[in-house]
Design goal:
mainly beta; Phage tail protein beta-alpha-beta fold; 22 strands; globular
Length: 347
């Protein structure tokens, strides 16, 4: 993969003859990278990493020098361009009503402020369902990604090298499951013999399906809404303190405020769903990465040994380039929780 280093003004500095490159693409959050090069090939003017081979562009945030018996090396690391949005806060409060994808773009437009070269691409047509919500004080990028995740959509900032613009857009991967007939199918399963070096797991330890959401007010006067996803079955209850969501009669009707509370409850329940995760090496697999499937695409996954069969999005792609080797590992389904995250979610 070709890498061109740019300076803080997006002017070319040099192509990088790197020794080791790790390119971590993420669907629901900004991805990141790490690249190692000989110290003599590093220039302090380097601020961004552009490649025509992937949609992402890296922000060089951490140059680190090391010296070993093999020589002196510089390790460059950082996040991709979407992380720039976290330089801005959603303040004052943003009130949204309407299709989620359109509302998120409106929020970014309202709060992006002076981020250089950033342009918001209009939606061809809003496709997400209508929702009502509000955000106060959150980092802009984090808030946008969290809202889009609820409708399985994502945020992307592409750098247009020819036009010298950062194009910000909402997007969604293709459906490549067997339940549709528009796109070619992609199936990862024992039967297709393409589960190479697979790590698969299911985890329902933090499952919740019934949220009690408490908003503005005190005591018996507090506004409370319920989100019931039990389907009539056993309720695993979750308390959601949403007093940060305030009702401003000038901005929302009471019904819209109550809808924003239910939206908060649905988002919190999403964090407590069973986690189904499959990580697989697709370097030499049946289906070719970037040709047959890409980040964000929905595919079929079948792991017979643990009785797992699901339609899942490709939520992460980790690429490692070194010497003449290119290793590709994809994660489908949900991101695994760390032990710390699990501890925080068990009340």
């Amino acid at each position: 993969m070709q890498l061109l280093a740019l300076d803080a003004e997006f002017q070319p500095v040099a192509y990088l003859p790197y020794l080791n490159l790790q390119w971590q693409r993420e669907y629901y959050s900004p991805g990141k990278f790490s690249v190692q090069l000989a110290a003599e090939n590093y220039d302090t003017r380097m601020a961004y990493l552009y490649t025509p081979d992937r949609p992402e562009m890296g922000i060089i945030q951490k140059p680190e020098l090391s010296e070993t018996v093999k020589g002196r090396f510089v390790q460059l690391s950082g996040f991709f361009l979407e992380h720039l949005l976290n330089d801005k806060l959603v303040y004052p409060t943003y009130y949204a009503a309407g299709a989620m994808d359109a509302a998120v773009l409106q929020m970014i437009t309202a709060y992006k402020s002076d981020i250089p070269k950033l342009e918001i691409l209009p939606l061809p047509a809003a496709v997400a369902e209508a929702s009502t919500w509000q955000v106060t004080g959150e980092a802009l990028g984090t808030a946008a990604c969290a809202k889009l995740k609820t409708v399985q959509m994502a945020l992307r900032c592409r750098y247009d090298y020819q036009q010298d613009k950062i194009r910000c857009e909402v997007w969604q991967g293709l459906d490549r499951t067997q339940s549709q007939t528009v796109n070619n199918w992609v199936v990862f399963s024992d039967g297709f013999r393409n589960l190479n070096q697979v790590v698969a797991s299911t985890d329902a330890s933090s499952l919740k399906n019934y949220a009690i959401v408490a908003g503005a007010g005190e005591g018996a006067e507090r506004e409370v809404q319920v989100v019931d996803q039990t389907g009539g079955g056993y309720a695993r209850q979750l308390w959601v303190d949403a007093r940060d969501l305030r009702w401003d009669e000038k901005e929302q009707t009471l019904a819209e405020y109550q809808a924003s509370l239910r939206q908060r409850g649905a988002e919190k329940l999403l964090e407590h769903q069973p986690i189904q995760n499959v990580e697989v090496d697709v370097t030499d697999g049946t289906f070719r990465y970037l040709r047959d499937f890409d980040l964000g695409d929905k595919v079929d996954v079948i792991v017979q040994d643990i009785g797992l069969a699901m339609e899942a999005r490709v939520v992460s792609v980790r690429e490692v380039f070194k010497a003449n080797d290119h290793i590709i590992t994809v994660t489908m389904g949900d991101k695994k929780l760390t032990q710390l995250q699990k501890a925080r979610m068990i009340y």
